[in-house]
Amino acid sequence: MQITVTPDVFKLAQVFTISRGSRTEAKVLTVKVEDDGHVGWGECVPYARYGETLESVTAEIESVTGPVSRQGLYTLPAGAARNALDCALWDLECKKAGKRAWELAGLPAPKPEITAYTLSLAEPAEMQAQAAKNAHRPLLKIKLGTPDDMARLEAVRAGAPKSTIIVDANEGWSAEVYADLAPHLVRLGVALVEQPLPTGEDEALIGMERPVPVCADESAHDCSTLANLKGKYDVVNIKLDKTGGLTEALKLREAALAEGYKVMVGCMVGSSLAMAPATLVAQGAMVTDLDGPLLLAEDRDQPLIFDTAGVHPPSAALWG
């Protein structure tokens, strides 16, 4: 078995800004696993918030040698490196078996899922213009986490009066700010709030009234982090780059649903190859947020299809 890791860069369609900073391109790692004449592909997005760099994740991937199984990858921590390898091994297994990934996973054939479209953080007038341009989309996601969030939220609602809105604060609020904003979120028809408080401060959510469902993002990684969400969150955001791959993501979905949480399936900003495995996890999710390719100016040769039905499952030529 031969494992190859390659850095790739995809230009964004426009500058993308969240409360932590801005970017003009998506830097990803592409993993190719070759065995017995078959090739499997995976992609990951190293994320600085979790102490990952292109170099550190590359080193993690290159530390894996010889024949390896998906279960054998659990020697690596949950994160980007394990994700790319795990997804590449799923693809390899599909190629060897001549079956699709959902067949190997024992799942029904996936269908399209409506996905959120993320509006970049900007001044209120610009965000209203972004919202108006995308008002035909049924689900918009707003990046917030600043002192001027109410003006931005009002602007987006004015620009897209019929779209469902979800909000991602990216750990940018305090408990006091969230409590103050909550009634306005209800008034403006916000359907979900992602990670309002920093991970280390989210104990404040215990016992706090949550009129809008609160979703754990940075506080939720793999199954081992689920116990710490109790009493704080209503929804768990599953991202393959956090879980360490599709294998753990499917386990986390099952465990979260069993404990009464709803599920959101999200992504880092990556290509269609990164989103493809996540479409399996997104089936029936409360919220699907797999819009990474929609934010790109360029994509893989066999990209996912996005249309009015949502994001479609991948073709076998792309993955799985």
From TrEMBL:
> What is the active site of this protein?
K143, K239
Annotated Mandelate racemase/muconate lactonizing enzyme C-terminal domain ranges read 124-215
Q: Name the enzyme's class.
A: isomerase
* InterPro entries cross-referenced by the UniProt entry: DgoD-like, Dipeptide_epimerase, Enolase-like_C_sf, Enolase-like_N, Enolase_C-like, Mandelate_racemase_C, Mandelate_racemase_N_dom
EC number(s) stated in the UniProt entry for this protein: 5.1.1.-
| Biological classification of the source | Bacteria, Pseudomonadati, Pseudomonadota, Alphaproteobacteria, Rhodobacterales
List ligand-binding residues for Mg(2+). Answer: D168, E194, D217
Please identify the protein, giving its name as recorded. Dipeptide epimerase
Cofactor needs: Mg(2+)
